[in-house]
């Protein structure tokens, strides 16, 4: 009986979170629950401070109907983007409004795990202090990392390209912060953010592409993130586009990332210019912007972009043929930069390689959410866990204290 009630709370909370404000009738329709059940659930959730009534909907002369949404002050979540050029830590309220942000620039080709943990902890303490929220009201921290995340009892990270092997990041961060920690791959958190609020909204079959120094995807299949046996599915950057081609950071040859990753594009440009200029990770964003800007007057820049379009289009055609998505969303800082100038050409290149039927049904679009989407996606991890648990107090270590803070007694 308790499980049924928890399940019903979860079914009702998801639409209120994703689509609110909604009337009770709308919640009932979306959740597939009766009016009486919704009425009881919403009364309980409002009394606990999880949802709030935010006004009335006109109903053509009938009795006005109350609109419900999640209570932004029910609790707070923190999203962390462990990037290869910067660490971004953001604190949001329960309505995912940004309350505080902390950035620390890194410029490392290899990230030391202890250094990474110290930077993340510093960022977390900073956003809690800056926002002034009660630490006990922090529902959890979602950390997005550039690597594979194995979800055992505690999440362990394998970042082959950044020198991480079996880093117990969840346990390390929990012991340093005392907060609930969730860890996932950065492309997957980007995908979840774009699916909830961005360019992948409203589709159950999509591939969200993250382009930066690293290259990955989040594959949404039948409404679920496709993970594979050990959660590493989607490593599109390490699929082979040239047999025996350039050596990739992962050690293999001819990976897509060795052709369309930001470091690869910059290195190829310098090679065409016959220069030996090493670009540090922190300089790449400016360097790529300069190459795109120079394409009209610089033959080397035009050529490296032509090549990038071809390889990226080919990689997207592979995604279209393998997964038959309704939508491919191109994101990440590099994806955003390339899409602004080159998306029609990338689409055409994909069309030359993909099978006609799946290609005729796919939209290839730019991501909506911009530079912070990976951190925002991190913040969705503790929210998803809470919504799935139906915001039942016993499931969260800190919830009982918070609830008593919201409604004494
Ligand atoms: Zn590779």
Protein model, in words:
With 409 residues, the protein is of the alpha/beta class. The chain has helices at 2-19, 24-31, 35-47, 113-131, 169-177, 186-197, 257-260, 262-272, 284-294, 299-323, 332-353, 356-360, 373-388, 399-406, and strands at residues 22-23, 51-57, 65-70, 76-82, 86-93, 98-105, 138-145, 148-151, 155-159, 164-167, 181-185, 206-211, 215-221, 224-225, 327-331, 363-366. The strands form four sheets. The chain has a five-stranded mixed β-sheet. Strands 14-13-12-15-16 form a five-stranded mixed β-sheet, sandwiched between helices. Strands 1-3-2 form a three-stranded antiparallel β-sheet. Strand 13 (215-221) and strand 14 form a beta hairpin. The longest helix has 25 residues, at 299-323. Residues 395-409 have low confidence and may be disordered. Bound molecules: zinc ion. Residues 238, 248, 250, 252, 255, 257 line the site of zinc ion (ZN).
